[in-house]
Amino acid sequence: MNRYAEALQQAGMSTIEAENKGRLFDQLQRQGKDLGIAAAQHAFFVPGRIEVLGKHTDYAGGRSLLCCVERGFCVLVSPRRDRRLRFLDMISGERSEFQFETNIEAPQRGWAAYPATVARRIVANFPNSRTGADVLLASDLPRASGMSSSSALVVASFLALAAVNGLAGTDPYQGNIQSKEDLATYLGCVENGSTFRELIGDRGVGTFGGSEDQTAILCCEPGKISQFSFSPTRFERSLELPKDLTFAIAVSGVAADKTGSALAKYNRLALATRSILEIWNRETGRNDSSLAAAVASSKNAESELRKLLNSSPTNSDFPLLDRFEQFVSESCSIIPQAADALAAQDWRRFGDLVDQSEQYAEQLLKNQTTETVFLARTARQHGALAASVFGAGFGGSVWALIEAERAGEFLGRWSRAYRSQFATPRGSMFFKSRAAPAASALPITR
Question: Are residues 348 and 267 in the same domain?
Fold first, then answer.
């Protein structure tokens, strides 16, 4: 076990997964040396995340239950003497290269859009940043799987460029980012293109999302499920996950990408949320900043909103009352009760609440696929304490909470059931994961 693996194990990652990451870091070092890249001065591990509950709640100011997954990006960073930025995926062989300048153009598709978007925003918000870098990446996190591979890449890109440019010591950083929650919110704004405090917005990657993914990746704790609320990002409570339980993860193989054809579907739900808030503020004369703030504005606000949505004309192409009912149920009822059930280890109650969330996603959000619905239902049939699709929807993955000692047997039966029902989609996979440590800087091994 090398020092990278040891550091990850000490942070709370399981031994086998820490050793897997250690091998990826070794691979990065060898390949970097073969390419003549200077020895790395910074190393990071940036995980993906599991959205336990919180389907499309964050950008509406609602709640989520979150943890990290034991898969993600291993990153080595070498400063350059020029302004050249090179991001190299050392597994696929893909690369993205551009100058660290104000006119960076992000590609419209593919992973290269994310580091380019981060670099352009850094130039705009931290104008003295011009130190280039070679950033070597190796990931075991499935792409477009609902585990936030895109947000993990945004976080990894920012941490790499922030390290070589000393951003944490600059006035713009210290004046606007005082906590991990602040950083997560800022990086959510980098993705969606909005302004964060005095850090002016720029073109994002096209999604109208919030900061749930970045918050999980930067702020969650190993062995725990964390409850956050958003707009602004606030930590609410942390819930211990018993050591005899683990997550089984099924990646459906149906891509849940936030670019390309899936972008319009994702944004349709966000735009419906904006429409609800616009109707509320227009009809009441209020100026609430989020749907959650509107609901919390008075004891009668929820019923008043229902009346407005039933009577107000709208240009939305999504049923606004369905969107509202799903949000209120998920954020205001299901998540607080599910967290209480977790704390009490009342697994029957927890499973029933997760099933209810899944039902609302299917019937009200309408963002599920035949494959993911099948996976969630068969997980419960095979004895999972709870199971749910997670991520933006329209594909992606399903988590199932099971006893750790029968994880292998469960995964075998679950995967066989899936593959007997569907022609095996490319990219489908099944694995287990603890609730993992958040993104972290690691000691450099020479």
Answer: yes
